Structures are given as structure tokens and as C-alpha cells.
């Protein structure tokens, strides 16, 4: 294994860290790729995606609402002339007169027909009652028009049945209360505000993780591989600050950009939820109140810092082996994908922050955010989550500092990845290329 | 009195997958006094850059020692780095900083007194004639302008020791001559300078003493006059070839 250049005399100097951090941040804010990928996209991508989705849904819904369903009715039921009248006078339907059922089915599959409504005589005990029939609707589930026809026909026939039963009941002197026996009423105890927080809690943490990771991605590559590619790495390494100060400054830079991206994204989500989800819910006659509870803000801030701290440290660990920006991107991408795996667990609505989950990085802080947005605070578990995240961060930072002390990496002569490095180390083999 | 730069029996060995153990530097010793330009002359792969990287604390020696202003490169690397200015063809500038920000940054991180940084930056901008483009980003500057900014950043913290590793590589004749002129001025200011090159004319013109390196070893080290006397050759090119050939010939 190659030697290290770290000296016991080299200590962390916060004055140096501050100067280095300012330099990193200043250069980053002047770098178009970083500003776009780490700040603008996290802020604008989410509202844009939701807007695009909403527009798409509205368009598709509008398309399906506007058309007239072409329906074939091979046979009408005996004793129900009003049903025929109802269907014929409904502007949402056009009745296609076709007698041959096989031809009608072929037309349905070909898309020139949207639905078949058949009225067959009732069988068994039901056949004894006069006017009884079985209504059968045939549709093609692969086509939106046909699915819409199914819905409309079902609603229409059901509505006719309700009217028929009410009318028959009245004729026989039975009130609706008597033949209905019981009615079903639904009530949601959650307020609109609570529902808004619930939806925010489901949506926001997932995008939060993605955006923090995206926020860390470019800065992590830029301050390691990018610096090597530009040729400024050696300039920096031959300058005054200790390796530890250099690592600390770079780490702070990556963490602050990633954390900022996460926080900005969270705020954007909260601000855009109402205009985005509002119109969707308005179609169902409901309203939604959204907004980040003030008490959740400190928790979200801590979570953003912890999440960015963990992801940033991990990314730097991988990127420190890269010699070019392209190499850095390739080395970080697998880690980026791994950070998204825990996000899948967050889709389970009933998931709460337990002591066990508080030990899993990424999952712990994102659950913290989710619960805080819903107004729930499990303080002991949150404490465990913070401590566990800090412990992970310390381990990863120490590894990163240790790696930056390896002279092959300082000199930029190591040819290989993190895994390659550890393989070489544990197999007690020299690194592939150890010469400046 | 300890000279500003002292290198004693310095060696550096690397592991190479293809070649096995590679002795990049072997038992190298030299000193450089204040107000002196010490030349390291050698072909590519002679061990010059490795030696200078050890001096600038980027690499650690396998054996031997090196010190800058009395500070050992292994025991006190931070102290060493603050006392030297390192410049090479591969040390670049931050493209998105302005010339002024660049000088300011390097003065600060190398420990120049904070209250004097501003005055120092203005002094260097004036000295190197950077004023017209001091607020322009480095990425927008021409090669010649960048070279001046690079020189200014190397001496931003007014180090007593300067290391130049093939600084004229890639420069046109005019810029190379300008670089040589500035380095000579630094010598006049009393700085100890190590100047590594493979260009004979540069070494002839600038260096007070020249060490001829080959295969990781120093084969000859003297003033130009001394080298001429020892080899019987006038031109440095011939002196170099004679020294290297003698070193390569089996005893």
C-alpha cells in the first residue's frame, strides 16, 4: 500500500476552512452546471413535473369527457320502455343498431364501437318476477373510450334501477326508508388541513431525498474530480491548509449545497401543492389546505443538514478516486442510486419512526420529516435518528480524510475506484498504479 | 546556520503494477541558499518532479529528510507549505475566480496576516501589471495574463522559498523570457529558488548552481563554471550528456 502524507501536526483550522469554503461556494455559484443541477432543478423540477402531470390528466380527462360513446344494444328489455327512452335521450350516447352480436364484438375490438349493453332475461328465482332482467356491459379495457363507456353505462343503468325501485315502492305503499333498511354515510374526521399535511408527508420526503442527493451530486464531483481535471488539485495540496481543513471545507460546501437544495425543494413543494392538487380535488368536490407547519421547519432543517451530510460524505468518498469529472460522475452514480432505495419504503402510508428505523440512514431522517409535516413528533426516536446519522457522518468523514491522506490520491495517480482501493488494501496488493 | 532548503539522502520508492518497485529518487542531497537559484536539470522521468513534490509535502520520502526554513517536511508539513511558493506547469488556477480573488485567496490560505492581505494584493497587481484585468475571471484571460496571475499567486504570501517545476513548459518565447526575468527578480529579493527544467538554455541563463539528475540520482552538482571545469565541455547540453552517459556506463 502506498504511504500517507498526513502528519500528526496537521490540525483543523477553522479560519482556513472558512476561506476555503468561501472559495468553493463562490466558484460553484459561478458554475452554470452546478447552479442548474443543484439549485434550479430541485426548485423548479418538482412543480414542473406536477404541473405537467396535472395538465396531462386534465387533458386526458377532458378528452374522455367530451366524446360521445358509441353503444350497441342488441335487445331491449321487456316492460322497461323508460330505460330505452333514457338511453336514447342521453346526449353522451349514440345507439348503434346492430343485430349480429359477433359483428358487434368485432367492432368493439376494432375500436369502432365503445360498448355493448345487453339485456338478457333473468334466470332462476329472479325469472319468476315480471320485468326482471340481467344487464351485461361489454367493454375493451385497453381503450380509454371504452372504459369511459363502461362507467357511463353502469351509472345510467344503476340510476334507472334506483328510480324504478323508488317508483315501484311508492306504488306499493312502501317508503324509501322501509325498502332501503339502512343508509351508509361517510365522514372523515381529518380536517382539510390535516389531509393536506398527510399528502404533503407522503409526497415531500421522497422528492426531498432525491433532491438532496441531486444537490450533493455535482458539488461532490466538482470539488474532487473537477479540481483534479482543472489542475488546481496540486495547487491546493501544496498550499498552507492541512488536509483535514481541505476535507472539512469541501465537505461543508457539498453539505450546504445539498441541504439548501433539499430545503428549497421542500418549500417549493409546500407552496405549489395547493395550485397543483387543488384543481384535481376540486373535480371531486373537495378542497385542500396545504402548508408546512411552523413547528416542522426546524425538524426539516435538521433533517436536510443530516441527509446532505450523510449523502455528501458518501459521494465525496467515491468521487475522491476520480481524476476527471466524467469518472467522478460514473463513480458516484451507483451510490446515488443506493440512496434512493430506502425511499421506496417511504411509500408505505402507515410507516412510523420506530427505534429500529431510526438507525437506518436516510430512512430515519426522511421519516422524521414526514411525521413532522403531519404534526407528529416522536422525540426519543428522533433523538436516536439524529445520533445515528451523526455517527454515520463521522465514520464516512473519517474515511474520506483518511483517503485524502493517501499520497496516490493526493498526487492524483491512483487508477481505480473505492472498491478497487479496498480490494487492493485487504488483499495486500499494491494499487494498480502508484507512481506520480 | 540552516539553509532555507536542505535535502539529505532523500529517496522515494513506488510500487508499480507493471514494473514492480520503482526507485524514483535515490539518495539525493543538496542545499539552496537565500538569494540563489538552484537548478535541477534532467530529462523526463529523472526524478525532478518527485523531489519537488516531496519538498512541497505532496509526497512523503521513503527515506532521508528535507527541510524548508528549518521545518521538516514530514514533521511540520503545514509550516513548510506556508513558507514556500510552488509553481509548475501542472498547477492551474481556479477559472471562475478573478485575478484579484485568486491572489487574495492564496495569500489568506497560506497564512499571510489578514490585515495586510489587501495591501499585498494591490502591490502584486501593480508589480505584475495585472491592473487592467484584475477583476476579470481567470478563464477569460490569455495564456500570458494567466502566467502573470500564477506568478502573483505563487508569491502572494511572500514566501522565502520558491519552487518552480518546469514553469515555462507550454509558454511561447516571449512569455518564457518574461518568466525568467521575474524569477531572476525574486532571486534579487533574497528568495531561495529551486528551478527544475529540461531546457538547457534556461538553466544556463538562470541558475547559480545546477544539479544534473538522471535515474533518480544527482550525478553532478556545481556552478556552471565548475561543471565546465569538471567535464571539459563548454555547453551545458554537452555537459549534461557527458554526465548522463558516464552514469549509464557500467563500472
Give an overview of the whole structure.
The complex is a heterodimer of chains A (436) and B (251). Chain A has 436 residues and is mainly α. Chain A folds into two domains: 14-50 and 192-424, no CATH class; 67-168, D-Maltodextrin-Binding Protein, domain 2, CATH 3.40.190. Chain A is 64% helix and 5% strand. Chain A has helices at residues 14-29, 32-66, 81-88, 101-110, 144-171, 176-180, 192-230, 233-237, 243-282, 296-319, 325-345, 363-373, 379-404, 407-410, 418-426, and strands at residues 69-72, 93-96, 115-121, 133-138. Chain A has a four-stranded mixed β-sheet with strand order 2-1-3-4, with helices on both faces. In chain A, helix 2 packs parallel to helix 9 and helix 9 (243-282) packs across helix 10. Residues 1-6 and 430-436 of chain A have low confidence and may be disordered. In chain B, 37% of the residues lie in helices and 27% in strands. Chain B has nine helices and ten strands. Chain B has helices at 48-55, 77-82, 99-109, 117-127, 143-154, 173-188, 200-206, 224-231, 236-248; strands at residues 5-16, 20-32, 37-42, 63-68, 71-72, 84-88, 161-165, 192-197, 209-214, 217-222. In chain B, helix 8 crosses helix 9 (236-248). The longest helix of chain B has 16 residues, at 173-188. At the A-B interface, helix 1 and helix 8 of A face strand 1, helix 1, helix 2, strand 6 and helix 3 of B.
